[in-house]
Write a structure and sequence with these properties.
It is a single chain. By secondary structure, the chain is an alpha/beta fold. α6 runs parallel beside α8. 41% of the residues lie in helices and 22% in strands. The chain is globular, with a radius of gyration of 16 Å. It has a seven-stranded mixed β-sheet, sandwiched between helices.
Length: 229
């Protein structure tokens, strides 16, 4: 993949946001601590989406290698490792990776890293998961990421995008996905039909599998499975 200016720009904004602005807020959001009504809906939606993506992975992952691309505070990586997977968990935000490393139970085969999910040095994988880590990118950038990773993925990739729905557009217009003091870089809604067409063109040899949208309160995200086997 040729990393575009847009990809570089948003990657930098995400790093700044999580490391300099909202680390504490996201540490609380991804814990069991009480949160406000807005964040409660985001937490509930993220939990439902994480459970969905995990259900699309093998129950027994012994001997399989998984990339958690945008691991955040590590809940999905931990679950995959508990199923027996060797997990490479990477995020642009070092503060979130530090939280993930501290929370993870001992003895799991997880390699926590800070950096670019497209780094070729990460190697190849059986499965790739990118949960809510591509929602800040335009369709072309998302497809470039998927096409690049498909060449190094043996079985499947599952990722989420922000669907272009009236409800999400209204929420974004109101600017209420997060309080103004720790609002994230812009979420970019993407048309599902366009995304599917672009993936088919850019990643020949792959097929589109399951999909599911999770929407409730201030959380809206759409999961899509890309099969490489």
């Amino acid at each position: 993949m040729t990393r575009t200016a847009t990809y570089h720009d948003y990657r930098g904004k995400l790093e700044t946001y999580f490391d300099k602005t909202a680390s504490k807020a996201w540490e609380q959001l991804t814990s069991d601590a009480p949160v406000s009504g807005v964040r409660a809906t985001v937490r509930k939606g993220r939990t439902e989406m994480r459970d969905t993506l995990l259900s699309w992975l093998p129950a027994d992952m012994t001997g399989l290698r998984l990339l958690d691309a945008g691991c955040g505070t590590g809940a999905l990586a931990v679950e995959a490792a508990q199923r027996g997977a060797e997990v490479i968990a990477i995020d642009v935000a070092g503060s979130l990776v530090d939280i993930a490393r501290k929370r993870a139970p001992e003895g799991l085969n997880i390699d926590w890293r800070v950096g670019d999910l497209l780094d070729p040095a990460l190697g190849s994988f059986d499965h790739v998961v990118a949960m809510d880590s591509l929602i800040h990118y335009k369709a072309a950038d998302i497809v470039s990421v998927i096409a690049s990773l498909s060449a190094r993925t043996r079985a499947s990739m599952v990722f989420t995008f922000a669907p272009q729905t009236p409800l999400l557009m209204v929420a974004l217009g109101m600017g209420r996905l997060f309080p103004s003091s720790d609002r994230s870089p812009a979420i970019i809604p993407v048309r599902e039909k366009l995304l599917r067409a672009l993936i088919t063109q850019a990643a020949p040899g792959t097929t589109l599998g399951r999909d599911r949208k999770v929407s409730g309160g201030f959380y809206t995200s759409h999961a899509l499975e890309v099969l490489t086997a």
